[in-house]
Amino acid sequence: MLGLGLQQDIQGRHSKQSWHNGTESSTIGLVTAQNTFPWERSSFAFLAHRPKQHINKSPGAVNSIVQSGQYCAIASVTTGGDDIGESEINPYNLEGSLVALNHDEVMTTEGHSIEIQGTTNGVKRYMTVADIQFNPLKPYILASAGYDLCVRFWSCKSIEWGKLPQMHKLQLECSPRKLGYMPNQSLLAIGGDNGTLYLSQYKKKRDVSITPVSRRQMISDFSWGTGSSAGHLLATTCTSDDDELKDPTGVHKLVNAEIGKSVCTLDIADGGHAVTINNTGNYSYIYTKGSLLRHTLWIHDMSQRNSRACQSIQLDVQDQTEVNAITISPDDRYIALAWKHNVIHVYDSQYLSKGPLHVYSHGPSIAAETPYGVVKAQWVSRPSGVVDLVSGGADGCICLWDVSRANDDIRNGQILLQLDDDIGYFSLGDIHKQEMPIVVGTCGGDTFGVK
Prior knowledge:
By secondary structure, this protein is an all-beta fold. It has a domain of 194 residues. The strands form 9 sheets. Strands 2-1-29-28-27-26 form a 6-stranded antiparallel beta sheet, with no helix packed on it. The protein has a 4-stranded antiparallel beta sheet with strand order 3-36-35-34, with no helix packed on it. Strands 4-5-6-7 form a 4-stranded antiparallel beta sheet, with no helix packed on it. β14 and β15 form a beta hairpin. The longest helix is centred in the first third of the chain and has 5 residues.
């Protein structure tokens, strides 16, 4: 394992390869990290001499990591935890798919488990946790979405014998796959695997049907609006991976959260996999995947509530791949697509039709049998206003990309952290709020933090 010691790279014992546009170029592999948030490039190196700390071992691949002040939560897969109807006892089904940390103290939970029918002594099956989010108005309250058909709410400030006490739960008719609080509000949106969007606040919920349950589609992604689209969210659906070749279609609706109803259905037939709304709330970006390897980026004018796209771009990707996430820079200029085949495409929003401005590539997968590619990309700002991109890929690296540099610039793609396993997820924190600068989870279930 590489570790964070700068001397390892200088001495050449561990050389990191940077991949740009399919060509390999040697880099020094300088470890850099954030000091303040927004980030300051000049202060990245302060973590170069600080070791990473192993903070948790989950039973499976890490799905999500969130931080809120002194609290950090980690959600993961657990073997046999994705089928609530399974009746056999699986010896590899282990607890720990949801843990929280209060500084260095690890808090476990009893939730997201079911009692296996027909067993004595109340044998439990532990379920996978798909997503987690902290309440922005009560930052000690954690919401978690599990395959036990429940969204559970926990209080991180009330530890009982090392356990995280459950406040209450929402029982659903499906497995919740995605959570997202309205910005600066306690209204929680929940995306279900039955095509239903749930809006929950104070133990109450509304059901908003994005697509009929009979279509067997799931809410693959949604995004809250701000500015001109505040109080609304855009949800998109697709079929599961097993059925996608049979039915590559989807439904995409703009929902008014105040009334709990759809106000516009977008004129897109293909299945949606990722969606975001820009920082002014004026434009939405939806990535869809259709038949015959058709990959499309759709742009809609949110202020007009128009069902027709104002622009659509056919993405030149031949692989059987898809976008894991879309993220827009704080100044709304750059759009980054994180792909499953382990690359990031960065577009200039004013010149989308010209194709990617940058193509950043992570190296080959380290350990995963089925690599997830670049699982996340996040923009960070310098005090000067210049933006950089941070990404986590299947090569076990968290990398920093400077969009002001050329693709083949060997100074680009600096390593913030390198691990011996594919990246499952990562979180960037604000040290002025007692958060860790970087927390990284792997597909093998290990989570590391740098303080």
